[in-house]
Design goal:
Layout lengths: L1 E4 L2 E4 L10 H5 L2 E9 L2 E2 L2 H14 L10 H14 L7 E9 L12 E9 L13 E10 L13 H12 L4 E6 L4 E4 L3 E6 L2 E4 L10 H11 L5 E4 L12 E6 L3 E4 L2 E2 L2 E2 L3 H16 L1
Parallel strand pairs: 7-8, 7-15, 11-12
Antiparallel strand pairs: 1-2, 1-6, 3-4, 3-5, 5-6, 8-9, 10-11, 10-13, 13-14, 15-16
Length: about 280
């Protein structure tokens, strides 16, 4: 595969990054992970505007040529160079601030990199495999605006993933400083209880996920369900009929077990069918 570094196409295996990289040195970086299939980037407009919003929050200077059309053209150029325009791929677009030394902001101008990874399935599917979760309580995320951004500081998720692997869980749920459930290690979380579907609000510190937005839009058009964006207590987990996790690469992942409670996946399957239709049409 090839990668795109500031508009130049390079061999991914041979590419090098400067040690004077603020993303590497200070975590001064944001990124977008996108799914590409059928010749289109799923939910591209939402990804683009989320990226622009994150760059503004982090006081990065947005280049004049960073229009939605121009940035999409750079992604397509990278796919074509990787001989992947007709394949299903994961795309990661990373943006960091140019070097300014130490903790000073230096230049507010940015650099970017686009990476491509091939995926197996063209559309979202529901796995029937066992998927057990647990709470990760060693570290917390802070509620607030910065936690909702997709920055490259993912230490809580990394440590949580190690904890899950060591204890034979497929995923863990992250808590905020108030010990309320925020999200999973790799996506947003939804709880189903009867006709009510609940997800933590952004104010609790969960990621402003693109697929979270799509699922909320879908639920809002279904007369059989009511969506609630409210704080989720750990005590609610064992009372739910279903729990599922969403992210833009995997789609919807139903949880099968949390401690002694097992869950159904009926609503997850229903939403997934509508998500695939939405992804094709948008």
């Amino acid at each position: 595969m090839k990668l795109n570094l500031n508009g130049a196409i390079l061999d991914a295996a041979a590419a090098e990054i400067s040690p004077d990289n603020r993303g590497l040195q200070f975590g001064d970086s944001v990124f977008e992970t996108m799914r590409y299939s059928g010749g289109k980037i799923f939910f591209w407009e939402d990804h683009y505007f989320r990226l622009m919003a994150a760059m503004r929050v982090l006081r990065m200077e947005i280049p004049m040529d960073f229009s939605m059309e121009q940035l999409e053209a750079e992604i397509i150029k990278t796919l074509e160079a990787s001989e992947a325009p007709n394949k299903t791929c994961r795309i990661r677009l990373t943006i960091w601030r140019k070097w300014g030394g130490k903790y000073t902001p230096g230049s507010r101008e940015i650099e970017f990199m686009i990476q491509i990874e091939e995926l197996a399935t063209p559309f979202y599917t529901v796995s029937e495999d066992s998927y057990e979760i647990e709470l990760f309580k060693d570290h917390y995320v802070l509620s607030g605006l910065l936690s909702t951004l997709k920055t490259n500081n993912k230490l809580v998720s990394v440590l949580g993933s190690i904890y899950a692997e060591e204890n034979d869980y497929q995923n863990c749920l992250i808590l905020n400083e108030n010990k309320m459930v925020v999200e999973a290690l790799n996506g947003n979380i939804f709880l189903v209880n009867g006709y009510k579907i609940k997800t933590p609000p952004l104010s609790d510190g969960c990621l402003k996920g693109v697929l979270r937005k799509q699922i909320i839009d879908i639920i809002g058009k279904l007369p059989d369900y009511v969506l609630e964006e409210e704080t989720v207590s750990p005590f609610e987990l064992q009372k739910a009929d279903e729990i599922f996790i969403t992210n833009v690469i995997g789609g919807i992942q139903p949880v099968t077990k949390y401690r002694k409670k097992t869950y159904d996946n009926k609503v997850a399957k229903e939403l997934l069918a509508k998500l695939n239709v939405k992804a094709r049409l948008e």
